[in-house]
Amino acid sequence: MALEAKNLSFRYARNLPWVLENRSLRVEEGERLGLFAPSGYGKTTLAMVLSGYLQPTRGEVLLDGKPLPMTGVCPVQLIYQHPEKAINPRWRLRKVLEESGQLDEAVLGAFGIEPAWLDRFPRELSGGELQRFCVARALMSGCRYLICDEISTMLDVITQAQIWNVVLSEAEKRNMAVIAVTHNRHLAQRICTRTVDLSE
Amino acid sequence: MEAKHESLLEIHDLSVSFRMYDHALEQHDLQVISDLHLTVRPGEVVAIAGSSGSGKSLLASAILGILPGNATVHGHLHYKGQQLTPERQAQLRGTEIALVPQSIAYLDPLMKVGRQADGHRRPRPTEKRRKLFARFGLPEQTENLYPFQLSGGMARRVLVSTALITDAKLVIADEPTPGMSLDQALEALTLFRTLADEGRGVILITHDIDLAFAFADRVAVFYAGTTVETAPAADFRTGPEALRHPYSQALWRALPQNGFEPVPGFQPYAGNLPKGCLYAPRCPYRTPECEQAVPPVRTVRGGEVRCYHGA
Given CB 3.0 to 4.6 Å as the disulfide criterion, which of A8, A95, B65, B112 pairs with A59? Predict the structure, then answer.
């Protein structure tokens, strides 16, 4: 049971340089992996290929030995770096959450999502508040692999600790794997069981 | 100028509220910033730390006069001793006061980033901009790329360049470092430090507070739309025993390297603020007094704190 990237290469167009070259990676179920690299090294691209948003130019992504499912809710969920760009600006937040299933009161409570926020539009909330919705909707989908692309860099440190504590306890409960992209080594030390540096 | 102004920017009793619709045509005012004080002197980096949604970015917008139409601003806003009126703000922003915006969505998606950073200035500051890009480690061909072709950290470095290219006397950097690696973040902060050492003022709004503590002169801590503590950055480097407000101490303890312990509870929602101290519902030291009235600002050991018990 693992998510595997085999000899991945990716470029955005034929005349552009390779962003990923011959990259292999294996994440076991229940494992928490930290990914490091300077900005511009293809961390976000790798996250998008692993979660099926981009097709690799060469190589393949395998979930338990099979390609990612093309229908239904993807068991690999990605949380983006910029919540303000990951939420439909014309949907009220209730609809944003309901897209991924029944509202889970326990998850909402753990993230401190106020019932009043559900009737607001995304532009009426701060970045930190929106990111809680992004994490909550990913967890509500019942995913098995959660890829967190710098999800807490725009949050204050108390909120960061709150969100990560919820994610870690959920990961423990359902044996979910977490791949955390971050620049913060102190944070990675706290949350990860293993780290990989893409620039090495 | 003859008169020597002690401070570059002075803010007293600032409040910002938004007019919101309830249902049909009924409206109410939602106060999101209240009784806020902040002073920036030339040659100084003032870091603003605090919870997400505590009004840090709104303060930046209020200084620049770019709040949306349904916002009302009250209080004293003075730049170089003169009141900041909407006309003056329009004159100053982009020339005297520069902003590094918080979201990379502020980049024009249809414009190559090089030209975008140059802006409308004539002659084009191309040379200066290339030097800035090089200093931030952006490859030479970056100037011909569109924002969607950049990674998060690269876009952030372009945004910082757009502000540094001006000769602004006051730079407001709204979370300039997320997405940057540690080296790049340090480079950006070193640049802000240099700007301040040249006699300008820098407001650094950030969540990378461990970095801010190292580069700033003073730190203002925001909570629920007001300043709870303003203290020399050295106190934050020392640790919680040197800090005055329980929320500042909680921030320090929540850093991954210092324990990673979140205090329970959440910041109160604007419009549903407690009657007394805004932090009282989460505060371990609260007394009945705290729930009665908002504590006044007191000066304790060279810092300002809004707490009855801070010492």
Answer: A8
Taking the Cβ of residue B22 and every Cβ of chain A, the question of whether any pair is shorter than 8 Å is answered with no
The tokens describing B56, both together, are 């840090």
Task: Kindly report, residue by residue over B24-55, the tens digit of the pLDDT.
Answer: 788 888 888 999 999 999 999 999 998 887 88
Closest-CA residue to B75 (of B36, B132, B106)? B36
How far is it, in rounded angstroms, from Cα B59 to Cα B14?
9
Interatomic CA distance for residues A76 and A190, integer angstroms: 23
Q: How far is B178 from chain A (nearest CA, A)?
A: 6
Angstrom distance (rounded) from CA A73 to CA A145: 12
Residue in chain B closest to A127 (alpha carbons) equals: B52
Tell me how many degrees the CA angle B83-B86-B91 measures, rounded to the nearest 5.
90
> Which tens digits make up the pLDDT trace of A103-128?
888 888 888 888 888 999 998 887 77
Give one DSSP letter per residue of B65-133, joined into a string: T---TTEEEEEEEEETTEE--HHHHHHHBTTTEEEE-S-GGGS-TTS-HHHHHHTT-SS--HHHHHHHH
* Chain B residues near residue A92 by CB distance under 8 angstroms: none
Instruction: Please state the ipTM of this predicted complex.
Output: 0.82
Residue B188 C-alpha, separation from nearest chain A C-alpha, in angstroms: 14
Interface test with B, best of A135, A156, A166, A200 (most B CBs within 10 A): A156
Cα separation, A150 vs B288, in Å, equals 41
Chain segment A17-58, per-residue pLDDT in tens: 899 999 999 999 999 999 988 877 889 999 999 999 999 999
